[in-house]
Amino acid sequence: MTPDVATIGLTKSYGQTMALRGLDLQVEAGQAYGFLGPNGAGKSTTIRLLLALQQPTSGHASVVGVDPQRDPVTVHRQVGYLPGDLALYPRLTARRHIAWFAAARGLAGAAAVDLVDRFQVDVDRPVRELSKGNRQKVGLVLAFLGRPRLVLLDEPTTGLDPLMQAEFEALVRETVADGRTVFLSSHELDEVQRVCDRVGIIKEGMLVADDTVEGLRRAAPRRITATFRRPPPEDCFARLTEARVVTRDGCTIELEVTGALGPVLADIARHDPVDLVSRPADLDELFLRMYAGAEPSHVR
């Protein structure tokens, strides 16, 4: 089956500034794919290239099996899009926006009723009178309007309250269950962990990790807190290559484990432990290590 999103060596430069550096990416149909990175990492640039809103410096992209640079109309017919810098017509109401988008897609006027109800959109006030969160809800309705095959979302929950964030996450799950695809660009790790099947992490225009959420958790450092009957020697874990001491407070030591647990547990056992707590790895820790200058793990 042809992936809904694929890039090969996708590169974009703005003068001397490299926004993307040879991006190789593949998103299968029916996936929720989380595209993680801080501001300036290249997330929005990637989405604009996928929609042919910009031209790549080099490399190629395929969206729903079509080259967007050669046939953007076919791509746009099958793709819903929420930009990170959503711009609406300030004098028009949400109702007018929705009617215009529905007509452009050849949809009946009632196509958005369910989405409007779900997101509690105020459809009769000019959007210039709406808060940031309420404008974002209009953008989500427009992105999901007509059940597109692929939905590209750039920071989609900006300004949403917790109730609307939960509604958005439910909609993403329903979209994927229907066999359609969601590509979600975000710097919100919690959001991505909750709704995405697979995650890509981009750093300085390069993909440094690409795996399932569980696969990335296995690659992330694990924290073990051990409490001993008496303070162990200062160098008791110095010989371990699988772990390092993060904090030490009297009889309690916290370790960050990046390798096999066996040697670490064996060393702990030698020093008369009385309590042991192992905390599952979290994407936060992997993400922060990559952006703190640690050597990235190229997970495939």
Overview in brief:
The strands form 3 sheets. The chain has a 6-stranded mixed β-sheet, sandwiched between helices. Strands 11-12-10-13 form a 4-stranded antiparallel β-sheet, covered by helices on one side. With about 300 residues, it is of the alpha/beta class.
Low-confidence stretches: 294-300
Distance between the termini: 19 Å
Quaternary structure: single chain
Shape: elongated
Proportion of beta-strand residues: 25-35%
Structural class: alpha/beta
Q: What's the main sheet like? A: 6 strands, mixed
DSSP helix fraction: 25-40%
Calculate the mean pLDDT score and round it: 90
Write structural notes for this entry.
It is a single chain. The chain is 31% helix and 29% strand. A six-stranded mixed sheet has the order 5-6-7-3-8-9, sandwiched between helices. A four-stranded antiparallel sheet has the order 11-12-10-13, covered by helices on one side. Helix 3 (94-104) runs parallel beside helix 5. It is of the alpha/beta class and 300 residues long. It is elongated, with a radius of gyration of 23 Å. It has helices at 43-50, 72-78, 94-104, 113-118, 132-144, 162-177, 189-195, 213-219, 261-269, 283-291, and strands spanning 5-14, 17-27, 32-36, 58-63, 79-82, 150-154, 181-186, 198-203, 206-212, 222-228, 243-249, 252-257, 273-279.
